[in-house]
Amino acid sequence: MPQLPDPLSRRDRQRQTREALIFAARAVFSRDGYHRANLEVIAREAGFSKGAVYSNFENKAALFLAVQDTNMEAALAEAWDPFERVEEMPQAVPGGVSEEDLTAAMTGFALATLEFIAVAARDETLRAEMASRMQRLLDAYTEVVRQQRVEGDPMSVEELGALSAALDQGAGLLLLSGTGAVDARLLRAGVRRLIDPARAAESGSDDADVGPGMHDQEVRARIAAELRDQQS
């Protein structure tokens, strides 16, 4: 007689429930926006009752922050090198997910994030929560600068990291506003020039256009996998 697997512990069940709610919330926030997103809808799409949401998250803002944390963990999971030549954006998952659906999901969540930022800016507690996450993002850019910068640059690594982050995040805002004036090729060239102008001139800017943002590939992969699961 085959041995049955050990039952899940209470902690493991809670972790699985929390993850399912976060994945469902990302889809609903992307589709409906932050303000229109409904916790009951999120719970239903995750396969739970609304009570499961409040057992894991204090409110909608806390759930949105949890989605942000999950995205950030994915985006920062792999170190990146702005001087590494990128040929093309790798396929996120094989089959079943169109580029249009993936772009719409990522754009939708970016727009929901703008809504949330406007809410957080007027709330002292949420503003502090957002500030801590932005600092984590700045630290990631600063670490890239620390590894790549040229010796003797009068700017500190923190200043160059902040400017690199501003370029990357600002390019995303321009894209959301409807202009593609700063594509991925130009963005990478700009970050290279900030970090090491001489090396940037030597390497040129002949990357293929790999899409907006410099930390998006892991997030794209996760969202594509979720879209594939929803369609199956």
Automatic annotation (TrEMBL):
MF annotations from Gene Ontology: DNA-binding transcription factor activity; transcription cis-regulatory region binding
Domain of life: Bacteria
SUPFAM superfamilies: Homeodomain-like, Tetracyclin repressor-like, C-terminal domain
Pfam family, one: TetR_N
Cited InterPro entries: Homeodomain-like_sf, HTH-type_TetR-like_transc_reg, HTH_TetR, Tet_transcr_reg_TetR-rel_C_sf
HTH tetR-type domain sequence ranges: 15-75
Residue ranges for the DNA-binding region feature of this UniProt entry: 38-57
Recorded coiled-coil stretches: none
Keyword annotations of the record: DNA-binding, Transcription, Transcription regulation
Record-annotated membrane-spanning stretches: none
PANTHER family to which the protein is assigned, alphabetical: HTH-TYPE TRANSCRIPTIONAL REGULATOR BETI, HTH-TYPE TRANSCRIPTIONAL REGULATOR RUTR
Listed name of the protein: Transcriptional regulator, TetR family
Organism this protein belongs to: Georgenia satyanarayanai
